[in-house]
TrEMBL record:
Keywords: Disulfide bond, Hydrolase, Protease, Serine protease, Signal
Listed GO CC annotations: extracellular space
Family matches, as InterPro entries: Peptidase_S1_Elastase_sf, Peptidase_S1_PA, Peptidase_S1_PA_chymotrypsin, Peptidase_S1A, Trypsin_dom, TRYPSIN_HIS, TRYPSIN_SER
SMART domains: Tryp_SPc
GO molecular function: serine-type endopeptidase activity
Name this protein carries in UniProt: Peptidase S1 domain-containing protein
The UniProt record lists the keyword Signal: yes
Gene Ontology BP terms: proteolysis
All copies of domain Peptidase S1, residue ranges: 1-243
Classification via PROSITE patterns: TRYPSIN_DOM, TRYPSIN_HIS, TRYPSIN_SER
Superkingdom: Eukaryota
Amino acid sequence: VVNGVEAIPHSWPWQATLMLPIPYMHGCGGSLIHEEWILTAAHCFIPSFWRMCLGKHHMNSSMDVPSAEECYKVDGIIRHAGFVYEQDNTDITNDIALVHLAEPVNMTREISPVCLPKPGIVVPAGTSCFVTGWGDEKGTSNLFPVVSEKLNQAALPIIDFQTCSKPAYWWDTLRPSMICAGYESPDELKSACQGDSGGPLACSTGGSTPTWEVHGIVSFGAQGCIKDKKPSVFTRVSAFSIL
């Protein structure tokens, strides 16, 4: 997350880190949506073997005292059948995947699921939602960015589809099954970045008893992450049927 702030430890208890075994290091983010399921991006699995860890704040868990980290083996990955980015790298639609855990998650104060939005719902423009992740903080454009030692967050306002699909913005790369969120003025720019992929864009329902819903999955953005009129783009969760 570029130009974000450190999250309060365990304030986003559904945040997962998808860890590559080389040795185990952070590769992508994800959201716990059920005791056995993690929601993430399809492009995170091109290809790899993973384990899922929850309850982390610092990437080095020895810095979390006491540690709330729990890690789980994966026994199934379901990528959307319409995800064709490997065959056509100009098309990153349907960038959504479900990861099945080999055993149910032990729910704690630090580990709990996020709600899914109602099918078809579109978050109004201007709504402030939060992206979270351990991704690149500097926007260095490196293929292998430096992973943040701590979980970061940034509040990003939703940008309506009509604006974000203009030629100066994302033009025909954008699809109705995507969400744009971020700032348009160069001195305000905040964004998701490499290493945040697959992580959540969480929006509060508001009201007297607000709940958090995962409306977006970090999908793509500008090279270097920060660029005028190139806000972060997320897969819109409500555009898909998730059982």
